[in-house]
Every structure is written in C-alpha cells, then in structure tokens.
Amino acid sequence: MGLQPSSSVPIVTETSWTPGLEGRRGPLYRVIADALAEDRDAGRLLPGTRLPTHRELAERLGVTVGTVTRAYGEAEKRGLVRGEVGRGTYVRDKASPTHMPRPVEEGSAEEGSLVELSINAPATPEGDPASQALRASLEELGRSPRLAELLAYQPPAGGLRHREAGAAWTGRFGLSVRPEQVVVCAGGQHGMEVALAALTQPGDVLATEALTYPGIKVLARRFQLRMQGLAMDADGLLPDALEAACRAGSVRLLYLQPTCHNPTGAVMPEARRREVAEVARRHGVLVLEDDSYGLLPSVRPPPLACFLPESSYFIAGVSKLLTPGLRIGYLVGPARARCERLAEEVGLASLMTTPLMAEVLSRWVEDGTADALVVAQRREAGERQALAREVLGAGVRCRASVPLYHLWLGLPEGRRSEAFTAQARRHGVSVTSADLFGVGPGVVPAAVRVCIGTPRTRALLERGLRRLREVLDAGNEPLAVV
Question: Is pTM, for the whole model, over 0.90?
C-alpha cells in the first residue's frame, strides 16, 4: 500500500526529504523514484527543492549509494528532477520539459537512449554460451531421477555433492580445500553477509581498502560495524597501513579483493600478499578474501588465504565469471575451523540455498562447462577492453592491465567524480563515481568506474564509450542558474 497524501505532512523545502518505502514493490531504485513522484504530486516536495546528496539518502535508507544514484537517474528520466553540476539534484515543476535520454531497450538502436556502463556484470552477447548451457542442463535435469530430491530440503551448508563441487571450483583459484570447509551460498554477496554475521559483533572494526566494493559498506551498517579504510597503491592494500590500524586499535576482520580489485582492477603481487597475511597473523585478524573476478586473468598469484590458512575465509565467485542469474557462490572456511557457525547463519536467513541452481553449477564444474564459460568470458572481456582503449584513446588514464569487465578511468585535472558522472548521464552514458567506493574521510580520487560488460552488443558499447570520450573532451559544464 503506497503513501497517501496528508495535510499533516510538512512541505519539504531543504535536503531533509526521506521517501516512505513501506508497502511498495519492485526494484528499490524504482520504488524510491515512485515515492519521489508521489511526494511531488502531493505537494510535499515543491519545485526547486534540493534533494539529499546520494550519500546522505543512502545512509538514511540503509542502501548503497549506487541504488540512490539509479533512483535519481530514474527520476531525472521521468522529468521529476534535474541535476546541476556541483550543486545537487532539484525537484522539477510538473510542466518543466526534460530531454534526458531514455534507457536503452534490448536490441534498440535509438541514438538518444541511455547507455548503461555503471552496472558491473559479465557480457551476455548474442548466442550467449551460458544460456545455451543452462538450457541443456535443465533438459537433462528434467529426465533425471534426482529431480525430486532437488525439490526437498537440504542441509543449510548444502548437500555433500554440491559442497564437493564447491571445493573443486575453489581449487580453480589455487586454493586446496575439503568439502566440509565449503558452505553453498546464494551468490558472493550472500557469502559476505553470512561471514559477517558469523564472525563479527556490533562495534567490531571492519578494515577494508580505502576504495572497496560498496556492498560491504551496506552490510557493515546493517551489522553495526566500524569501518576503517586502509591506504592502498597501484598494487592494492599497503601492509604498513594494516599494521598501523592494528596497533591503533583492535581490528576484528579485514575484507579485501587482492585479485582484480573492484573498482581499481589492481592485482596484489604475491610478495605483498605474504606481508599482509603475516601482519594479520601477528595481530590475530580474521581475513575475508573476495575473489569475484579471480579467474579472468589466465595467470595470477595464489590467493592470500594460501598464506593464512588458519584464519582466512574465502569467497569463490561465480556471478562475474559465469553468469549472475545462478545466484550461487561458495564461502570457504579455514581448514581447522568448523563451518557449523557459517551454516547456521545460512539456515537462520533462508534455511538453505536453492538446490536446483546448486545442482546446475555442480554439473558445470564436473563436466568442464564452467571452465569453458570462463575462457569465453576472458576472451570477451579482453576484446571489449581493446575496444575501450581504442575509443577512449592513449591519452586517457584507464587502468585495464588484466581482462576485466570494469575499467578505472582517471579524470583530467580539475574534474570531480560526482560532477563528471552527472554530466555523463546528461550526455547519454551512465558510469559510477569514485565516491561510491570510498571508505572513511580520506580524499577520493578523481576517477570513475566504467563497466563494459553490460551492453549486449559491442556496437552499443562503442556508442557509450564515444559519448564518454566526448564528455572527457568537453570539459566541465557551466553551473546552471536557478
């Protein structure tokens, strides 16, 4: 049931607006945009009202900054708001015209449509091999005598066969584990949630790289953890920064992505992994290693968990390597630690992870389909990166040293990340500001993340990249006059 207009609700004229989301259904970003439209139409948001910043509203609602960015973008496409470079987002009058590009429809060739380069996902080109593999697997399962078994309750950690597949998949990353160390989760994000629930208490310090995956920030707020961003360089987390944080106070858990860091793409060298592991061991810090992209490089250092087996937890990713729709990921605990606590958290939240999808992935791991899909994604990522380098030009600071579906694009001097992101959207291409990834009060670099996997075709990707190149060349747009 949606919000109802009420004369007792005060008119909002400053940045204190918080949408009422109770009873609404659909994707969260659209729900926020719907609430904004209703409040404007009911007179609770007057034309010219400046809305909260993306970060402010995200903190109020307990969602990611990216969700608010998409919500404001959706509202701007509907003509509800306008973004002004360096000033914020303002409510439009109902009669105000809007010329924002519409989101591109699948297969559309409209020149004015928005090209989405802010969602980090693997490519699904025409003839997508993952779709073909899934179709074949479902046909086989339909004839399998085990089908009824897959519709029954399973142990919270997953059935033995599925945990064996998880151990085999983790071995692809260079980490040898036993099935009893594996907990089958509904994707990597769920694995992170399970780990935090099992390993931390409210008030604990969660250390991360100074730039980190935004999903961990949302979970930290949910579990009332104190986040601490640690300094990093082109190779990732600095061991001295972890050492200093541990000496200054008790760090309970370190979350990091040493291979194909999101957003920078950094790959931590083996020597530094050993140093970080030694600091964590010396101070009794647990480590949660997220390897969402780890198989995209054909050559990579061993996981950090290899150097800290007694207190490392490892997420063996699937969504960014095969396809996100399976919603399966593997959370691996230390060799000597029991995984009952991890399994208990899965059981408390959802009883179990969907066994049908776990079975599909198990078959793919066993028969080599998963390996073939990784090779295909690696090839596609490399070819899309080559296209991006060609379109953006040699003079652009764009980190892409290994095959990945995201690029870390450094901005020219004098450009700000949030302002550039808003300007790019007005010119028909969506990217992600560096502010979304920052942890703590440190200075956020002038950069944006550019995701090159989402466009279904390379022609659409090229269109988005060319628009991005035009925004880079255009310089800052002048401030609008209210």
Answer: no
